[in-house]
Design a protein that fits this description.
Layout lengths: L4 E2 L34 E3 L20 H8 L9 E6 L19 H9 L7 H10 L9 E4 L6 H10 L11 E4 L3 H14 L7 E4 L4 H4 L15 E4 L1 H9 L10 E5 L1 H4 L6 H9 L6 E6 L4 H10 L4 E5 L9 E7 L5 H12 L4 E5 L3 H13 L5 E3 L6 H12 L5 E4 L12 E6 L13 H8 L9 E7 L2 H14 L4 E2 L3 H9 L2
Parallel strand pairs: 4-9, 4-10, 5-7, 5-8, 6-7, 8-9, 11-16, 11-17, 12-14, 12-15, 13-14, 15-16
Antiparallel strand pairs: 1-3, 2-3, 3-10
Helix pairs in contact: 3-4, 4-5, 7-9
Length: 494
Amino acid sequence: MATEVKESDSSLPPTAQQPSDPEDTLTDDPSGEKANAPPRKEKEIPSSSKPEEDWAESTDELTTEDEQLFSGIDPGDETSRIQVLQADPTTPYYSANTFEELGLSEELMKGIYHMKFSKPSKIQATSLPMIISSDGEYKNLIAQAHNGSGKSASFVLGMLSRINYDTQNTQALCLVPTRELARQIRDVIMALGKFTQVTAALAIKATEEERKQNWASPSTGVMSEHIVVGTPGKVMEFIKKRKFDTSSVKILVVDEADEMVDMQGMGDQTIRIRRNLPKNVQVLLFSATYKDAVRKLATRLAPNANQITIKRETLSLDKVQQYYIDTGNKEERYTVLSEIYELLTLGQSIIFVRTRHEAHALTQRLRNSGHTVSVLYGGDMSPEERDRVIDEFRAGITRVLITTNVLSRGVDVLAVNAVINYDLPTDKFGRNADPETYLHRIGRTGRFGRKGIAINFVYDDRTKNILKDLEDYYSRQVIKVTDVEELSERIEKL
């Protein structure tokens, strides 16, 4: 019987987004082998009687309030619970109270201190002992963790801990669904690896300036960076063109794994890439959500894996207050949206729409009305423009970003305190609710224990039914507000 462990989200710095538009995704023939994994037993996580240590040299006693601020962990977020299922229930397992317990190198510990991480978040405390082997046997892992809980730092530390800096070849590969997430994770690698000799390369569509640079080693024409982060299509292209030698890869990380192993998305490419890696490569899959069918496919990619899971009813983010407004008709959505930006004082916000065409149309309409907004989508938008838009939004130069599902996953912008679902997330036919994408969208706010709001628009029976399906899926009520004034009053009370 598994012991449920409450999860506290760590207020970590930005670390790394939703699959890009369908036009961004290349496909190959489906492939992959089934793995016969032995039955798993749920493993109780032992509690430690040892007091938690702080890495700071000061021995001054901290008040509870000071400790919360100092540690970066929000003890108020006590709703999410995780379960650990070990592939081999006889293997000893522990949850780390401090980073010092993990046996990381001095250089990595300096990187952790430099990032001002004081002690692990729950996903870090639970996953890192499974990722970092003390006996030389590196186990696969399928991990589920809340958005904004510090999972990126978990797998980045896992990759950095496997690098042999005496050799200059690629030893770790991280697959992600979008270029924005790839760039973000590369930045986390370089930040946590600041005091190591790590090198990292991106395998994404190059900008015009990047195409002029020589990314490959001049002596061999092959990428030689220790870690490669990229999208499946571009990574597969590099493998085929022999620009990427996979023979020395020790660890494969798949972020946003539910999308990356879904055979209707990028799953076929991900499996083909896995087949080009050494048989003994360690596979780590991380995501906030896993459909049941996708979880089965994940076991093909990571056979005999330890698993970390979260109960569905605890997934809906408690730090995000969720509201909906019935605008009466589709056209009236724009009027309500304009009132929101005229009457409410928001930090940065993201507006989600269903298609690129709708993103263009709404952006132009808001700009014509005097609003300053930026727009980002996949498809025919150039890499240079995508990078410029997200970089300006991160820097706070722009405060309102209109986007499609391309930005619903992984991207961390801590100043975002509001998400508006101008179009509710649905399947590709626009008929049924897409609960996973909804969770990822609203997870762009309320990051790392901060408060945020999600505002949903409904206007007819179809959209009301979609919202009802989302409520039923997560067993969580979305609060109805009659108008923007009531919304403003509720937000002021938060």
